[in-house]
Each structure stands twice: as structure tokens, then as C-alpha cells.
Design goal:
It is a single chain. The protein is an alpha+beta fold. The chain folds into two domains: 41 residues; 167 residues, no CATH class. It contains two helices and 14 strands. The strands form four sheets. It has an eight-stranded mixed sheet with strand order 1-5-11-9-8-7-13-14. Strands 2-3 form a two-stranded antiparallel sheet. Strands 4-12 form a two-stranded antiparallel ribbon. Strand 2 and strand 3 form a beta hairpin. The radius of gyration is 32 Å and the shape is elongated. The protein starts with 12 loop residues before the first helix and ends in a 5-residue tail after the last strand.
Length: 238
């Protein structure tokens, strides 16, 4: 007995060609969609890194993508030979065409104000844009370390007199922190989230004298892997 398969169907060459073309058309569409997906993903990734690395609006370098590094914004700085630095009255630098460090920190000049021949001041205004407080462990100026001066804790700034005569300001080679619109120096080295502060730095015996209109590299150590880095110019206010 011969059993015939009634479901078997013969296709003409024309029908076979039509079905093959349809399959190729579907494969082309799928390939095109995959390529478009890869292109969009790649473009989005590249845009993220470009926008995230090259930060505008401040002088921070884009050498690192560390979150803490991007959280600190430089708002202003004042490194002039001037009788007022960032609107702080009596915060005077001697008119000597330089920021005086090592040459103004001898035994007889130790911790004195600039008008008495002592080392000079730098003021930097920053803002903490992170959601958490930061603790400023130290500041490096041209790779020279400056630590927070605990003796300025909660004390009103006084730069009219030398420290030995009742003045209140950072010792040579140290810094203090002042809230905006206040002359009372911060009780500790904490900068709370969203706060803007002034960093008052007094040059010390390890700081080379800096001629005006020269660059100064500033590194803020806030406990992260990478310090926050800025480049400022001596003799200028921004």
C-alpha cells in the first residue's frame, strides 16, 4: 500500500524566490535596528563622559571623575598686594610686588602681619556642592602643605595687631575658615553641604615668594582619593 502525504506542497521557483526575499528583508531590518541601538548607546556614553569631564564655570581641572573632586566650586580668590582682600577690611598685603613667604618668616618676623614685615595672606572662596559635609584636612599651595589652625577656632578675625599683641589669624603656614559675611573663624575644619566659605591662608617658611602675575596650584585635601585642584594667579582678584 502506498500512503500519500496530502500536506506536502510543491512551490514554484517564483514562490521560492518571493519567500527568500521576504526573509532577507526581515534580516536587514533587524540588522539595521541593532546597528542603530549600538550607535545611540555609544553616542550617549561618549556624551556623558565629555560633559562630565570638562567642567565649566570654575577653574577645576578635569583630570579625575571622582565625585568628591567635582563637589567643590571655586567662586573667587584674592592674591593682591592690597589693603582689602575679598572685602575683608584690614586684611592687608604689603605693597612689595610679591606674595612674601620664606623671606618674611624669619625668627624676628614669625607670625607677624604683613605691615610688620610678616608673611602675606591669600583668600579663596569656595562652595561645597555635595550632599554631605566635607572636612578640609589641609591645603597645598604649589605642593607646600598648610594645615588648619585650631587656635582660630571660634575666634573673631583680628589682623590689625600681631599675634603676640592680641591679633587673631592663622599662624605662618596655616589657614582658617570664615563663613560668608562673618569675621568669626569657624570652630572646626568642617564645611557643611551647600555652604560657601572663605579660606584664609597665611604663607609660611616653606612657601617660596611668589611674584605677581604668576600661577599658584591649589590642592584641597578633603579626604577623598583625589584632592580638589585649582589654578589661580598671584596678584589678581576674581
Amino acid at each position: 500500500m502506498i500512503i500519500m502525504n496530502t500536506n506536502f506542497k510543491l512551490y514554484s521557483p517564483l514562490e521560492k524566490k518571493s519567500k527568500l526575499c521576504k526573509r532577507r528583508g526581515v534580516a536587514d531590518i533587524i540588522s539595521t535596528m541593532l546597528l542603530m541601538g549600538i550607535t545611540v548607546t555609544g553616542a550617549s556614553t561618549l556624551t556623558y563622559f565629555v560633559n562630565d569631564s570638562f567642567v565649566s564655570g570654575n577653574l577645576a581641572t578635569a583630570a579625575s571623575l571622582d565625585t568628591a573632586t567635582k563637589s567643590i566650586q571655586l567662586l573667587a580668590f584674592d592674591t593682591r598686594d592690597s589693603v582689602t582682600l575679598l572685602q575683608f577690611a584690614n586684611l592687608d598685603n604689603k605693597l612689595d610686588q610679591k606674595l612674601c613667604g620664606v623671606s618674611c618668616t624669619g625668627v624676628s618676623l614669625s607670625d607677624k602681619i604683613p605691615s610688620s614685615g610678616g608673611s602675606e595672606f591669600i583668600v579663596i572662596k569656595i562652595k561645597n556642592n555635595s550632599i554631605n559635609s566635607i572636612f578640609l584636612e589641609n591645603i597645598q599651595l604649589n605642593n607646600i602643605l598648610h594645615t588648619w589652625d585650631s587656635q582660630t577656632s571660634g575666634v573673631t578675625l583680628n589682623t590689625v595687631q600681631n599675634l603676640s599683641l592680641g591679633g587673631n589669624y592663622p599662624h605662618d603656614g596655616k589657614f582658617s575658615i570664615l563663613p560668608i559675611s562673618s569675621t568669626v573663624q569657624s570652630a572646626n575644619n568642617e564645611i557643611q553641604s551647600g555652604k560657601t566659605v572663605n579660606l584664609l591662608i597665611k604663607l609660611g617658611p616653606n612657601d617660596q615668594d611668589v611674584l605677581l602675575n604668576n600661577g599658584i596650584t591649589v590642592l584641597l585635601n578633603i579626604g577623598s582619593i583625589h584632592p580638589v585642584e585649582f589654578l589661580i594667579e598671584s596678584g589678581n582678584a576674581r
